[in-house]
Specification:
This protein has seven helices and nine strands. The chain is of the alpha/beta class and about 220 residues long.
Length: about 220
């Protein structure tokens, strides 16, 4: 069973998505587990404060290293192998589907450092030897969305999560355009038809059509 550990100040923002639909069912079926660790639970500050002014000046607040280090230690437990430590940062390595496949095969536990504000004190990911990862060429307000993106991508690679291996798009020819009933959709007095090739039952022609559609999108 794959175990995902998310260190975040706002765990409730993720529970609704990760606890529902395919990922939620996979957790119920014990194909994966998701645990949350709030850095505020690992601070000695009586007000559970975990952010401070940055050294060197600048706007915003920086999250202290120690609460994240303690939370990561709790998540890691006594495990020393097959753990992937991830730190989400704008200058990180671009996450890809190929990485999701490789990680799903190589690691059993994933620990995500989800920052906020101006980020986490750089010493925390340095001490933890966390790999810097980015989910795209844009800036988000926190690491919660990237955590969910990466979990979703990895979860799809776990056998049984999608019901059958054929459900994984990269293992089959999948057209970017898909259709279902009705055969003819009437909308605002106009008719929109399903491509005839998909109605003929000739699987060879259907596969050729899907391949053609896919190649058009890539060019």
């Amino acid at each position: 069973m794959k175990k995902f550990h998310i260190i975040s100040l706002f765990p409730d923002t993720m529970r609704a998505y990760l606890g529902d639909s395919i990922i939620g069912r996979a957790e119920e079926d014990k194909k994966l587990s998701i645990k949350y660790y709030n850095p505020r639970d690992f601070t000695k500050d009586k007000h559970a404060r975990v952010d401070r002014r940055p050294y060197g000046g600048g706007p915003g607040m920086v999250l202290e290293a120690e609460p994240y280090l303690k939370a990561a230690a709790k998540a890691r437990g006594k495990k020393t192998k097959k753990i992937k430590m991830v730190f989400f940062a704008t200058d990180g390595k671009q996450f890809t589907n190929q990485m999701a496949r490789e990680w799903a095969k190589k690691y059993d536990d994933f620990i995500f450092l989800s920052g906020r504000y101006e980020g986490i004190d750089a010493r925390a990911p340095q001490i933890l030897r966390a790999e810097k990862i980015s989910v795209g060429p844009f800036v988000l307000t926190g690491g919660e969305l990237p955590s969910m993106i990466v979990i979703d991508a990895i979860a799809r690679q776990i056998p049984g999560v999608l019901g059958s291996f054929e459900s994984v798009e990269e293992e089959r020819t999948a057209s970017p355009d898909v259709y279902t009933r009705p055969e003819v959709l009437v909308w605002k007095k106009r008719k929109y038809k399903v491509p005839a090739v998909l109605l003929g039952g000739n699987h060879k022609l259907i596969e050729e059509w899907k391949t053609e559609q896919l190649s058009k999108r890539k060019t």
